[in-house]
Amino acid sequence: MTHSTVSASALYDIPGPATRKRHFLYGVLSTAVVLALFAWLLHLLFDTEQFTGSKWMPFTYKGIQELLLRGLGNTLKAFAYAAALSLALGAVLAVGRLSEHKPVRWIATLLVEFFRAMPVLVMIFFIFVALKVQPLPALVAGLTLYNGSVLAEVFRTGINSVERGQREAAYALGMRKTQVTTHVLAPQAVRAMLPTIISQLVVALKDTSLGYLITYEEFLHAGKLIASNLDYDLPFIPVVMVISPIYIGMCMLLSWFATWVARRQRRNPKTEGTGVAAAEPGTLLPGRRH
User: Fold this and answer.
1) Nearest Cα to 113, choosing from 157, 145, 161?
2) From the CB of residue 111, how many other CB atoms can be counted at a distance below 10 Å?
3) Helices (H), the chain
4) Which region holds residue 289: left if phi is over 0, alpha if psi is between -120 and 50, else beta?
5) Which of 197, 217, 89 is nearest to 143 (CA)?
6) What are 67-122's pLDDT values in tens digits?
7) What pTM was estimated for this model as a whole?
8) What pLDDT is attached to residue 6?
């Protein structure tokens, strides 16, 4: 019996012929149901004339293409600002929550809990309407306050998850708390935090679509202008079919980037442990003599 077979049988019983046939039948039935749903959706789309030339004609015009590209560029610009500022704010609030000074820790905790509890749309509208801020800064500020407060908890949890012995060993070497955090704890916590950080950045990327509610000309706002055009027979479904894959592709690209960074970290010699030679018979400790 191979090692893989032993490992599998330790987790669950190896399926027999009857079970394998039953699993195969389940797979066939599930596939048939999915294909039936897909066929039903296609039928609805054709039945409602969503693939007629008049509804897809707008995408052949240069002005419409420029409108979509400009909206996509505005979306990426807002995301870039929000992502950078959220990471910076999260780091500052995490340091505040880990501070030994109670007033600093209390203030950081209050800010984190308040901005985490506030809906993103409410913060964006408050900044845009009450403070009379321009659409782009209002959108970026709302996304930064919310995502920064969430990332603060991610950073704090990641640093606290590092083994206590690492912290104690660094203090024993005479390192200050700032040095322990930046040189010992944070580098080890980054790998554990990276998937959660990227997931939160994906949330920030999708939330940039809220900008159309405050007249920020981002990607969804451009699609809304096209979809509500009576001259093109209200091409709502075609716009969704064009915009959705682009949003999904950007999120997948961000996830791929996170995987690439994690793989590089594993190959980086600075993050790998250094081998220690085994002690040989007769080896003397420093300062000892025969």
Assistant:
1) 145
2) 19
3) 3-11, 17-47, 53-56, 62-97, 102-117, 120-125, 135-160, 164-172, 177-179, 186-207, 219-227, 236-267
4) beta
5) 89
6) 999 999 999 999 999 999 999 999 999 989 888 888 999 999 999 999 999 999 99
7) 0.75
8) 44
The residue type found at 220 is L
DSSP string, 56-72: HGGGGSHHHHHHHHHHH
146: Cβ contacts below 8 Å, ≥ 6 apart: 115, 116, 118, 120, 123, 207
> How many residues comprise the chain?
290
Structure tokens at 151: 């990332």
The Cα–Cα gap between 224 and 283 comes to 77
Tokens representing 73? 């560029």
Task: Name the token pair of 174.
Answer: 């005479």
Please compute the mean of the pLDDT values over residues 264-270 and round it to a whole number.
63
Q: Report angle CA 179, 183, 189 to the nearest 5 degrees.
A: 120
Q: Cα–Cα distances in Å, from 260 out to 234, 256, 266, 271?
A: 41, 6, 10, 15
Tokens at 191, concatenated: 């790998």
Phi/psi region, residue 104 (left: phi>0; alpha: psi -120 to 50; beta: rest), is alpha
Q: Of the candidates 162, 151, 156, which has an alpha carbon nearest to the alpha carbon of residue 188? A: 162
pLDDT at 228 (0 to 100) = 80
Cα four-point dihedral sign 18, 23, 26, 32: negative
Which parts of 98-185 fold into alpha helices (H)? 102-117, 120-125, 135-160, 164-172, 177-179
Residue 21 zone, left/alpha/beta (φ > 0; ψ -120 to 50; rest):
alpha
Q: Are 137 and 171 in contact (CB under 8 A)?
A: no
Closest CA to 210 of 79, 141, 121: 121
Place of tokens 């594993």: 266
Q: Which tokens sit at 43?
A: 């039928």
